[in-house]
């Protein structure tokens, strides 16, 4: 397929700027107008290195004025804390909690509804409350601690003891002197009771009794209440980190020993089976080098581990991001978030893509500036960036983004206190901007979308949905090439990328992922256009070579392998099973009776697996699909409608063992 530069540019632009909205777009347009075509094509477009490009945008007179002019104005823009708002939400939460206790018998539903509303208000109170003593004019500087305490009471009523205990602990951490109060130990006792830990509940009550001036009446009432507590049934987590089949490959971190890396001139480096891979083998289980949550999920998912939020814990300085636990908050705030915190709304408002967030994160999460530089340079050196197809416009846009991100780092004191407030980069700042430009190039071709599965209350599969919550860069995951029908299924456990074989692979057979265009949904021409534009290659996979039809146009046809030893020829379903067929390749007469019998067995396995899915027996379904698919590839080849559906269903089941959430 011909290279289409206009389409390539549209695709490429999207990887820097996710939306037309946002000031970064205007910034690019202004710079583009100022520099003119001649300079862009004849000078900038001919520069040979990222260092030269970055230096050029800061120093060439054709562009430096608008560049410095805009970057000069970079200032913190973030969601501030608001103690008054927090106190109001807390009062609302307390009132709703009180109202829920007033609901009479038989009004359990209504009470639960009120408690859920109370929890929402308390969550807002937590998110907007400033750190201890940051605003002493309201709540004596204790808004945050009070918000946690209020939320703990609601959680106890909701039967969520563990979360309540964590909030009580946070309330004391943020300044409430609760340890001398009988009420605190009574709350702890109730929390333990809902967790099914009566011994710990009793110890808490005993402590309450021993406190000076303890209210024995209140404690007795509490004991009574606890006696009638029925700990709610806890749904066991279905999330599992699988083990790599045959252990980790010492030469390919995160990958199994059943695969290896090879390289060819036309396909670059890619992963193939080493000895042979069976259906269901786990070939990759890898943490990202860096991963970022998409901004539209900042209110619903943990900024650090991407888990769905229930009782958020806030950053102590901004209200823009939320964490699922104090631990995630601590890890993020002592690392990348301290640099990103005050600039989050500016970054979002710029309209930059998720890939730009990842580029920035590689620096903000590093232990030191030197580590950040080393990681970024290594990634640029090792991952594909397709410098050969990049146009001058594209380089300019990416260089401007690199400059903007470097400016954010300057303003967030990533480089320490600077001698001047001006933008003009120092030598090391230029190195960072250069490395950022390199990252923006490799991320375009190597980042992975991160998914979670949304399941309904009623059923794990019926009505389930795949939700794209973030993106990440995976060191080994980046070496998997594409095919229009992948041979592995990808799912995520948190941010871990797991790839599982969905068919058997012979030694040296490509282990391929899918970059988006699937043959079952998109025709050959569209796929080729997308892959050319987005990933700069022409696909030559079997689905493309043989131009397999879309799933809806696929009939029930199946092609069987010739059964004579070492012959690799595909034969149509025989017209008369009683008769032998002649293979045109090996010229032998063979019987396909056994192959057809196996196909009948395979179809039965697929049906059993589908029934297991209907009964929500995920692991049973996985085993049945694995057995059926493995058997299919012994006797026949794709495309075969039922096997394609079985492979897709296997992916659904595997995703169900990863990160899922209920709405
Ligand atoms: C994520 S990287 C995969 C690793 C890459 N082959 C390398 O050497 O670094 C994506 C790039 O690999 C190449 N690629 C992926 N699948 C391919 C395929 N089926 N045929 C040819 N090139 C492919 C394209 O250049 C694409 O932009």
Main sheet? 4 strands, mixed
The CATH class of the domain at 83-227, by name, is Mainly Alpha
CATH architecture group name of the domain at 83-227? Alpha Horseshoe
Fraction of residues in β-strands = 5-15%
How many DSSP H or I helices? Answer: 23
Plain-language structure description:
- This is Protein-lysine N-methyltransferase SMYD4.
- One of its GO terms (cellular component) is nucleus.
- Helix 3 (50-59) crosses helix 4, helix 5 (83-102) packs parallel to helix 7 and helix 17 crosses helix 18 (427-446).
- Helices cover 47% and strands 11% of the residues.
- Strand 5 (313-314) and strand 6 form a beta hairpin.
- The protein has helices at 5-14, 23-43, 50-59, 64-71, 83-102, 108-128, 143-157, 161-173, 182-194, 198-210, 216-227, 326-333, 337-340, 344-350, 354-364, 369-382, 392-411, 427-446, 524-535, 542-545, 593-614, 618-635, 641-656, and strands at residues 259-264, 268-273, 282-286, 290-293, 313-314, 322-323, 447-455, 465-473, 488-493, 496-501, 559-561, 570-572, 581-582, 589-590, 636-637, 660-662.
- It is built from 23 helices and 16 strands.
- It is α+β, with helices and mostly antiparallel strands and 663 residues long.
- 44% of the residues are buried.
- Among the domains are: 83-227, Alpha Horseshoe (Serine Threonine Protein Phosphatase 5, Tetratricopeptide repeat); 259-287 and 448-545, Beta Complex (Beta-clip-like), CATH 2.170.270; 555-638, no CATH class.
- The model has no long low-confidence stretch (mean pLDDT 95).
- The longest helix is centred in the last third of the chain and has 22 residues, at 593-614.
- The strands form 6 sheets. It has a 4-stranded mixed sheet.
């Amino acid at each position: 397929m011909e290279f289409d530069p206009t389409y390539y540019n549209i695709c490429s632009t999207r990887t820097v700027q996710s939306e037309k909205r946002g000031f970064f777009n205007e910034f690019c347009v202004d710079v583009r107008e100022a520099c003119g075509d001649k300079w862009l094509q004849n000078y900038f477009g001919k520069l040979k290195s990222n260092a030269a490009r970055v230096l050029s945008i800061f120093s060439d007179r054709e562009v430096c004025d608008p560049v410095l002019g805009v970057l000069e104005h970079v200032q913190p823009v973030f969601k501030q804390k608001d103690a008054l708002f927090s106190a109001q939400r807390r009062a609302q939460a307390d009132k709703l909690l009180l109202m829920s206790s007033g609901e009479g018998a038989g009004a359990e539903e209504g009470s639960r509804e009120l408690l859920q509303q109370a929890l929402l208000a308390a969550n807002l109170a937590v998110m907007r409350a400033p750190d201890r003593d940051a605003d002493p004019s309201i709540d004596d500087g204790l808004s945050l601690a009070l918000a946690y305490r209020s939320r703990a009471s609601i959680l106890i009523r909701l039967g969520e003891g563990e979360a309540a205990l964590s909030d009580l602990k946070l309330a004391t951490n943020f300044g409430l002197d609760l340890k001398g109060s009988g009420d605190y130990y009574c709350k702890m006792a109730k929390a333990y009771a809902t967790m099914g830990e009566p011994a710990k509940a009793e110890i808490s009550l005993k402590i309450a009794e021993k406190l000076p001036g303890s209210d024995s009446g209140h404690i007795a009432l509490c004991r009574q209440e606890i006696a009638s507590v029925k700990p709610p049934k806890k749904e066991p987590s279905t999330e599992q980190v699988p083990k790599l089949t045959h252990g980790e490959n010492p030469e390919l971190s995160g990958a199994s020993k059943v695969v290896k890396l090879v390289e060819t001139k036309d396909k670059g480096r890619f992963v193939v089976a080493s000895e042979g891979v069976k259906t269901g083998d786990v070939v990759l289980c890898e943490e990202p080098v860096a991963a970022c949550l998409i901004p539209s999920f900042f209110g619903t998912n943990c900024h650090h581990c991407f888990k769905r939020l229930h009782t958020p814990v806030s950053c102590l300085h901004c209200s823009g991001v939320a964490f699922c636990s104090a631990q995630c908050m601590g890890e993020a705030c002592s690392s990348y978030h301290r640099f990103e915190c005050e600039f989050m709304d500016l970054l979002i408002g710029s309209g930059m893509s998720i890939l730009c967030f990842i580029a920035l994160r590689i620096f903000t999460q590093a232990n030191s500036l030197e580590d950040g530089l080393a990681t970024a340079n290594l990634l640029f050196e090792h991952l594909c960036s397709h410098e050969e197809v990049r146009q001058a416009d594209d380089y300019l846009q990416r260089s401007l983004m690199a400059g903007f991100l470097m400016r954010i780092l300057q303003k967030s004191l990533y480089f320490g206190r600077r001698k001047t407030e001006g933008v003009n980069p120092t030598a090391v700042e230029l190195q960072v901007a250069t490395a950022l430009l390199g990252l923006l190039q490799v991320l375009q071709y190597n980042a992975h979308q991160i998914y979670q599965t949304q399941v309904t209350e009623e059923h794990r599969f019926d009505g389930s949905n795949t939700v794209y919550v973030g993106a990440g860069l995976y060191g080994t995951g980046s070496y998997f090439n594409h095919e229009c029908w992948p041979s592995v299924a990808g799912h995520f456990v948190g941010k871990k990328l797991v790839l599982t074989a969905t068919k058997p692979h012979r030694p040296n057979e490509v282990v391929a992922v899918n970059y988006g265009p699937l043959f079952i949904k998109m025709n050959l021409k569209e796929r080729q256009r997308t892959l050319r534009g987005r990933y700069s290659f022409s696909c030559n996979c079997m689905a493309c070579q043989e131009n397999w039809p879309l799933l809806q146009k696929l009939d029930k046809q199946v092609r069987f392998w010739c059964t004579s030893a070492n012959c690799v020829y595909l034969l149509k379903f025989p017209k008369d099973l009683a008769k032998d067929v002649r293979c045109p390749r090996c010229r032998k007469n063979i019987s396909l009776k056994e192959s057809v019998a196996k196909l009948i067995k395979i179809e039965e396995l697929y049906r059993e697996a589908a029934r297991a899915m209907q009964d929500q027996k995920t692991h049973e379904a996985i085993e049945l699909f694995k057995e059926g698919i493995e058997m299919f590839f012994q006797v026949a080849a794709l495309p075969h409608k039922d096997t394609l559906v079985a492979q897709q269903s296997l992916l659904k089941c595997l995703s169900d063992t990863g990160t899922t959430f209920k709405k």
